[in-house]
Amino acid sequence: MSSNDTRHVQVMIVGSGLSGLGTAIRLSQRGLSDFVVIERGPDVGGTWRDNTYPGAGCDVPSHLYSYSFALNPEWSRSFSPQPEIEQYLRTVSERFGVRDKHIFDCALTAARWNEAGGRWDIETSRGSFTADFIVSAAGVLAEPNLPDIKGISSFEGEIFHSARWNHDATLTGKKVAVIGTGSSAVQIVPSIAPEVAHLDVYQRTATWVMPQLSRPYLRLERFAFKRVPGLQRLIRALIYTTRELFVITQVKYPWTGIALEAVGRFKMRFEIRDPELRRKVLPKHRIGCKRMLVSNKFYGALDRDNVDLVTDGIAEVRSGSIVSEDGTEREVDAIVLATGFHVADSPTFNLYTGRDGRTVSEAADAEGYQMYKGTTVANFPNIFFMLGANSGLNYTSLIYVIESQINYIVDAITTMEQRNLQSFEVRLDAQVEYNEKLQPKMARTVWVNGGCTSWFLDKHGNNSALWPDFSFRYRRMVREFDIDAYDTTTKTL
């Protein structure tokens, strides 16, 4: 396509991670072929293509972390490493024949609603498009959150974010600092600690770390996954049911989390010899307030002689050192930023301009970050946001919500076709009423009352990330496109 041509498609999917790829497959299966997937990277995979740091893997059991329509009997372990998940997504894209619908190395630069044309005008790094519908599947773990630390730009050694790992950098025998102790750090720290000369781990807030029941699958098990009808689905259902029980400790009755905290305390005492280190890693918030971490190696790595846990905070970064708030200066050759991602304030929200000329970010700044059923938002016709406000989960597989939203999106597009409709836009009163019913459920959760701040909260202090109920209730809610909640226009000849 020439950069001067404008191509029209019925559906533009932005991003080809789990959300975008799954949407493309479902559209194809429903006979909707006029779509394209733009992906800023060189291949499918999203976060599992980008996060290639040492030790990268999934903290959701393998059998649950796959599409329901494409179970994978080839998982090597009960918790899958990153390369296997990336390969799984590549295999699925080929198996379902949607790779030719992709334009790789193509980044969205702007999308503006065209009121007169009843469509979206889209600019990308590889030319212009128009589309009847947009599915924003950029992902919640797509934009690294880079810390604003005094002097960090003056550092002369290697420095990179965990999601942009520099594989050309050699850490062996060097003094390394890891900033952050979240989901990525608990995998990175044990992986690099044995090879570096010294490792400083900078912790802002201690987080509960639970055991990971990870093991390799036996050859006989993998044979059974392939040959025994229904076995994988049974295992998947059992895992799903077990994971849903976390709703009790996080949403319904947070006080019951005491039992899980006892497990965490025992694990801490069993794996860490130094009582002062145990004191540093003991969380002050209720379990589940921040995302629970799973690792069998993190505490052991912190207890190594060549590893120090620093809890004083960072005052500044110099050319070859980090100065903590107590005035201690520590020499360092390389810095790994395990500082998470922009979620509620994703930079991608600046790219979509709605009916009244405001971007999603501008609307969120004025009114708070809220959506209708986690997928649509007033003032933005004909666009769906995958894993939008209050549709995330922190206790089970996000793929369950992704597939639920895909059902809603495909039903919406099909309904629009069947009724000869040009545009839809969720009514503001429907959006407000939905959120007014949602927030009381949030008020009693451990995420709000657990005594912590987390990436679940937006800058207004609201939990705009998570769904405060059982995930099967979310799926039931978005089973069909409820067109009565939307203002629509009819196509004109």
Describe this structure in words.
The chain has 493 residues and is an alpha/beta fold. It has 15 helices and 20 strands. Strands 1, 2, 3, 4, 5, 6, 17 and 18 form an eight-stranded mixed beta sheet that branches. The two termini are 28 Å apart. InterPro entries: FAD-bind_Monooxygenase_sf, FAD/NAD-bd_sf. It comes from Nocardia alba. This is Cation diffusion facilitator CzcD-associated flavoprotein CzcO.
Map the helices and strands.
Layout: E1 6-14, H1 18-29, E2 35-39, H2 47-50, H3 82-95, E3 102-104, E4 108-114, E5 119-124, E6 127-136, E7 158-161, E8 175-179, H4 185-192, E9 198-202, E10 209-210, H5 219-227, H6 231-244, H7 246-252, H8 258-271, H9 275-281, E11 293-294, H10 298-302, E12 307-310, E13 314-317, E14 321-324, E15 329-331, E16 334-337, E17 352-353, H11 360-367, E18 383-385, H12 398-418, E19 421-426, H13 428-443, H14 446-449, H15 471-477, E20 486-490
Helix pairs in contact: 1-12, 12-15
The CATH topology of the largest domain: FAD/NAD(P)-binding domain
Portion of residues in beta strands equals: 15-25%
Terminal-residue CA separation = 28 Å
| CATH homologous superfamily label of the largest domain | FAD/NAD(P)-binding domain
Helix content: 25-40%
CATH top level assignment of the largest domain: Alpha Beta
Principal-axis shape = globular
**CATH architecture call of the largest domain:** 3-Layer(bba) Sandwich
The poorly predicted ranges are: none
**Which structural class is indicated by helix and strand composition?**
alpha/beta
Number of domains: 2
User: Mean pLDDT, as a whole number?
Assistant: 94
* Main sheet: strands, sense, barrel: 8 strands, mixed
Please report the total strand number as a whole number: 20
